[in-house]
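Ticket #4471: structure export looks truncated?
Reporter: QA, pipeline team
Priority: medium

Steps to reproduce: submit the single chain below to the structure queue and open the exported record.
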Amino acid sequence: SILGDRTRVILPPRENRIFFRSQASQLEMGGVNPYTYHVIRLLRHLFDYVIIETVGIGQNETEVTNLADFSFLVMQPLGGDQIQFMKSGIMEVPDAFIINKCDEKELASASYHTLLASLEFLHDTLNQKEVPDIFLSSVTKNLGIEELMAYILTITHKKSRKEEMLHQLKRWIRNEYGNLGLKYFTPFYSNRENASFETLEADFNKHFLSLFHSY
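Actual output as written to the record:
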């Protein structure tokens, strides 16, 4: 796959503070590769921040929220009207919004107020605690970049790493063994809470196969 940001970015020859890793979606409906979790775990030991860019977001492409501590929906001016914004998943999933490519002020302002109106409507309708933040940015105009980076630096962990691992393990079991595998997972996991993902993965393979052969 070709990642546009990686192709266009200009870095010094020996710059080692930034690393790009492309992954094909492998037709996954969640928007991220099944092995993205494993890559993220490795990168967390090497870098202070790991940024995931998904294939998109919608009614099904929400798996990234189980991988990331914080989710942005990046849009562009005139990316949709209020009806488009109100589609299920578009408004509820992101923690904040970025309207990028705001090179033209009037278009950016129109998109901002359209998005804000949609968020305020859903806020009142769904009884949400607060309206998510909206950022305006433009790389060519150097607009809003510093404000966005300052905001990102304030983000903290949204969930524990154990909860994250447990979700990914259940996702793997569902993909490999379906609902039957999930049925046997709870008793299997009850005395293995401190085991690593790889250990649990290998042990459950053996456990499920032994159950299968016992019938």
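Status: closed, not a bug. The export was complete when the record was re-opened. Leaving a note from the reviewer for reference: The chain has a mean pLDDT of 84.
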